[in-house]
Amino acid sequence: MDHTKILAKAKKKGLLRKPEEEYTKSEALSLIMRAGFSTNENVTEYSGRGVGMDVVKQNIEKVGGKLVVESDLGVGSRFVIKIPLSLSITDVMQVSVGQTDLSIPISSVKEIFKLKPETLVRDTEGTELCMIRGRCYPVIRLSEYFGVESEITELTDGIMVFCEDDHMRACLFADSLIGEQQIVVKPFSPYLAQHNIAESGLSGCSILADGSITLIVDVKTIISNIFGN
Amino acid sequence: MKGRESKVAFENSAENIRLLTFFVGEEQYCADISIAHDIIKVPAITYIPRLPEYIKGVINLRGKVVPICDLALRFGVEGEEYDGQSCVIVFSIRGTQVGFLVKRVGDVIDITEKQICPTVNERSFISHIVTTEEGSFVKKINLEEVFEA
User: Fold this and answer.
1) Which of A77, A137, A193, B100 is 20 to 30 Å from A5 by CA-CA measure?
2) Domain B3-147 has CATH 2.60.40.1180
3) pLDDT tier, A97 (very low <50, low <70, confident <90, very high otherwise)
4) Which of A1-5, A90-94, A212-216 has the lowest mean pLDDT?
5) What is the mean predicted confidence (pLDDT) over B23-30?
6) Domain boundary at A82, A111, A134, which?
7) Is the dihedral of CA A147, A148, A150, A154 positive or negative?
8) Which residues of B touch A197 (CB under 8 A)?
9) What is the ipTM metric for this complex?
10) Contact yes or no for A147 and B44 at CB 8 A
């Protein structure tokens, strides 16, 4: 698919929400999933009304999934459908960061420990690294990543959660440990899915026994958001 | 429901539209009451980071996780203060429930088709202007557009 042509067509149809030049390639490609978008000049019995992809996307988002379009002109297109394990029971480690309650899937957690000051090193860019059995792993401060205010700023005061997901490893820094929980994962509402919540590193939420809501962290997305793939 | 309303006999026909009015900032807005699901007092809202400022977070509505959108911030009204009269109206939009935080709920009004007039811009948050019996204007919200990212 030619993303410049898609953009031009979307502009003609008045589907753009910001200046044309601000659209990235992937944003332009995702325009094909908007209601009313079609590059067909003629409406036939089956196509041309701009409904198909919109319905596909809406139905995937209804179950909390994601549809991503990748395409290279002249090479081919790939439609990636990501569907969450909805309503499944997961073991999580619950931590608190400021006022926010986060749950890290146990499957991603390798170790939980308090940082000893002598194991902390900084590289030239100021990235904090933590030494675990002779190897260095980056420290991700969850309060900074999520923009949540927290009183605990010293790495030695909080708790380190050493995580591994899809061969990526990092230490997530939280204020304190609440405990282990079994939770029922609920996908986020399509309203939040529209705001790219999955790309922000949250994969779902869950209602706890006291009625409060905990947010489930997607370790892999957080690490790749910070350090690239 | 007697008194003022009694002179307008309400018939549930195509020409009659029943609307729910509410306040955002100083302005009065309305929406189709048939898609209003709940009106509740502002509950404890669980903040979700890394989202636009107007999405306040999620609430637990009888076991369902419902996102909350602050309409004042969505419309760019700054410094809205919420008090005891403030509440959340939960609407069903495209099959999902979304709660909207408003300053206070107004009234339920019955209008006829003559009192409602569409606005020019389809992409606007306001789809129609409603003229009430008293002659004041109420803006009807295009919830589909508010729902969009």
Assistant:
1) A193
2) no
3) very high
4) A1-5
5) 89
6) A82
7) negative
8) 48, 50-51
9) 0.77
10) no
Between strands B64-70 and B36-41, the pairing is: unpaired
> What is the rounded average pLDDT of the residues A194-203?
86
Based on the fold, state whether residues A36 and A149 are members of the same structural domain: no
For B96, the closest of A14, A101, A191 (CB atoms) is A191
Pair (A173, A115) in one structural domain? yes
pLDDT band at A90 (very low <50, low <70, confident <90, very high): confident
β partners of residue A216: A103, A204
Distance, CA of B71 to CA of A84 (rounded, Å):
30
Identify whether residues A47 and A135 lie together within a single domain.
no
Say whether both A176 and A221 belong to one domain.
yes
Mean pLDDT of all residues belonging to chain A: 85
Which residues constitute the domain of residue A59? 3-82
Average of per-residue pLDDT across B59-80: 89
Residues of B in contact with A84 (CB under 8 A): none
Q: Tens digit of pLDDT for each residue in B94-118?
A: 889 999 999 999 999 998 888 888 8
- For testing contact with chain B, the best of A62, A141, A188, A191 (most B CBs within 10 A): A191
Report the residue from B44, B93, B149 with minimal CB separation from A195. Answer: B149
So what's the pLDDT on residue B20? Answer: 94
Query: 3-state SS string over A117-137?
Result: HHHEEECCCCCEEEEECCEEE
> What backbone phi and psi angles, to 5 degrees, belong to B99?
-95, 135
Provide the number of structural domains found in chain A.
Answer: 2
- Nearest CB to A207; choose among B48, B65, B67: B65
Nearest residue on chain B to A200, alpha-carbon basis? B50
Residues A185 and A119 in one domain: yes
Instruction: Please count the other Cβ atoms lying within 10 Å of the Cβ belonging to residue A53.
Output: 19
- In chain B, where the domains are located: 3-147
Q: Are A209 and A105 contained in the same domain? A: yes
- Six token digits for residue A67: 């549809």
Indicate if A76 and A163 belong to the same structural domain. Answer: no
pLDDT reported for residue A84: 67
B49 interfaces chain A, CB cutoff of 8 Å: yes
Whether A93 and A75 map to the same domain: the answer is no
Whole-number percent of chain B with pLDDT over 70: 89
- β-strand A168-174 against A135-141: which pairing, if any? parallel
